[in-house]
C-alpha cells in the first residue's frame, strides 16, 4: 500500500463528499449519518475538523467561501481541488484492487484462544454467535428496507459486504464451537493447560 499524505480513511470520505459538491464539515457529518456511512468509519466532530485541516494543508481541498449568518456560527465551505480529485481516485483504486493486511481483534483473540477452558470458550462462542446472528438480521433488514424503497444496489454494496463478512464469521464460529465441544480439543487442552489458567 502506498503511503498517503493523509492516511485516515475519514479523509477519503471527506474527499468523496466534496466530489458531489462543495460543503462545510457540519454538512459532511450530516450526510454521513443520512447515508449510513458512520458504520463504515469512526469519527467525532473534532476528528472530522482535524482531517479537513490536514486535507487543506495537503492541498487536496481548498476553502471556497465563508458563510456568515447571525443565527449560526461562521461556516467555511470547502471544495475538492484537482490534486484532491487525483488523490481520491488513486486511493480508492488502491483500496478496491489490493487486499490489505488487517489485524482484527477477534483474530488476536483466536491466536491466544487456548488459554480459555473448553467450557468457557464454548460459552463465549455461543454469545458471539448470538451477537453475530442479531447483527446479520439487522443488516439484512436495513438492506430489505432500502430495496423496498427502490434504492439502487450500488448504494448498498457496503451493507452487502458487511452482511457477507458477518455471515462468514458466523459460519466460522459455528464450526469452531463444534470443535471446542469435541473430546479431542478437551483432551488437548487438559494436557497443555489444566492447572495453568
Provide an overview of this structure.
With 197 residues, this protein is mainly α. It is built from eight helices and two strands. A two-stranded antiparallel ribbon has the order 1-2. A hairpin with a 2-residue loop joins strand 1 and strand 2 (72-80).
What is the chain-wise order of helices and strands?
Answer: HHHEEHHHHH
| Low-confidence residue ranges | none
Q: Quick one: biggest sheet? A: 2 strands, antiparallel
The count of DSSP E runs of length 2 or more, i.e. the number of strands, is 2
**Average pLDDT across residues?**
90
Number of helices: 8
Computed Rg = 23 Å
Q: DSSP strand (E) fraction? A: 5-15%
Principal-axes geometry comes out as elongated
Helix % is 55-70%
- How far apart lie the N and C ends? 40 Å
- Helical/strand content category: mainly alpha
Q: Strand order, biggest sheet?
A: 1-2
Quick rundown:
With 197 residues, this protein is mainly α. Helices cover 63% and strands 9% of the residues. It has helices at 9-20, 25-34, 45-58, 82-97, 105-111, 118-148, 157-180, 183-193, and strands at 61-69, 72-80.
Amino acid at each position: 500500500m502506498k503511503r498517503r499524505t493523509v492516511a485516515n480513511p475519514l479523509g477519503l470520505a471527506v474527499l468523496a463528499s466534496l466530489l458531489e459538491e462543495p460543503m462545510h464539515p457540519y454538512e459532511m457529518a450530516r450526510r454521513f449519518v443520512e447515508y449510513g456511512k458512520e458504520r463504515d468509519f469512526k469519527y467525532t466532530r473534532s476528528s472530522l475538523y482535524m482531517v479537513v485541516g490536514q486535507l487543506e494543508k495537503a492541498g487536496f481541498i481548498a476553502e471556497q467561501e465563508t458563510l456568515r449568518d447571525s443565527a449560526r456560527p461562521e461556516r467555511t465551505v470547502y471544495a475538492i481541488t484537482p490534486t484532491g480529485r487525483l488523490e481520491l481516485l488513486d486511493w480508492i483504486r488502491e483500496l478496491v484492487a489490493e487486499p490489505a493486511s488487517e489485524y482484527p481483534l477477534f483474530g488476536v483473540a483466536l491466536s491466544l484462544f487456548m488459554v480459555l477452558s473448553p467450557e468457557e470458550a464454548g460459552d463465549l462462542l455461543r454469545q458471539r454467535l448470538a451477537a453475530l446472528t442479531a447483527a446479520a438480521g439487522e443488516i439484512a433488514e436495513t438492506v430489505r428496507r432500502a430495496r423496498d424503497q427502490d434504492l439502487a444496489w450500488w448504494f448498498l454494496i457496503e451493507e452487502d459486504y458487511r452482511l457477507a463478512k458477518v455471515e462468514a464469521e458466523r459460519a466460522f464460529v459455528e464450526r469452531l464451537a463444534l470443535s471446542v465441544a469435541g473430546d479431542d480439543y478437551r483432551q488437548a487442552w487438559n494436557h497443555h493447560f489444566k492447572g495453568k489458567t
